[in-house]
């Protein structure tokens, strides 16, 4: 059974960097064919794909967030991470780490059924 768990600060100040980790159990993040993404949902908005890291370590980003986003991994801990710099209150959202056989569905707005595995999500508030 594949399980994902997000961790990181829940309150971040404007202009600082939001940093989250996702610990994966039940599957190695280097297993061929698996892709690991970060998704967020801002209040009253759809689920938004932020970016992904592949089993081989390649990264892909939502172009609207690319300049502020860094996704990386620590294979020794079976974790992948997200850093979002220069945050503003508009970055307040529930952040989810997800995994599955796809990373980009053709749209930057996604549905739960697009991905096989979801973390429970972590609410991050950016204070002004």
Question: Which helices and strands occur, and which strands form pairs?
Answer:
Layout: E1 3-7, E2 11-13, E3 18-25, E4 35-41, E5 47-54, E6 59-61, E7 69-74, E8 79-84, E9 93-100, E10 109-110, E11 117-118, E12 122-127
User: What are the low-pLDDT stretches, counting only 5+ consecutive residues below 50?
Assistant: none
Approximately how much helix is present in the residues?
under 10%
Average pLDDT rating = 96
Element-by-element helix/strand order: EEEEEEEEEEEE
Instruction: Tally the beta strands.
Output: 12
Question: So what's the overall shape?
Answer: globular
Q: In words, what does this structure look like?
A:
Strands 2, 4, 5, 6, 9, 10, 11 and 12 form an eight-stranded mixed β-sheet that branches. This protein has a four-stranded antiparallel β-sheet with strand order 1-3-8-7, with no helix packed on it. The chain is an all-beta fold. Helix content is 0%, strand content 50%.
Which features characterize this protein?
mainly beta, 128 residues, eight-stranded mixed β-sheet
Write a brief caption for the model.
The protein is mostly beta strands and 128 residues long.
């Amino acid at each position: 059974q594949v399980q994902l768990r997000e961790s990181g600060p829940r309150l971040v100040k404007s202009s600082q960097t939001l940093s989250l980790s996702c610990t994966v159990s039940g599957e190695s993040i280097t297993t061929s064919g698996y892709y690991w993404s970060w998704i967020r949902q801002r209040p009253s908005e759809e689920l938004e794909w932020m970016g992904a890291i592949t089993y081989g370590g390649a990264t892909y980003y939502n172009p609207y967030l690319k300049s502020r986003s860094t996704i990386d991994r620590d294979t020794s801990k079976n974790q992948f991470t997200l850093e979002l710099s220069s945050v503003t209150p508009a970055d307040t959202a529930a952040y989810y780490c997800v995994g599955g056989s796809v990373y980009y569905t053709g749209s930057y707005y996604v549905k739960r059924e697009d991905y096989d595995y979801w973390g429970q999500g972590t609410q991050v508030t950016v204070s002004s």
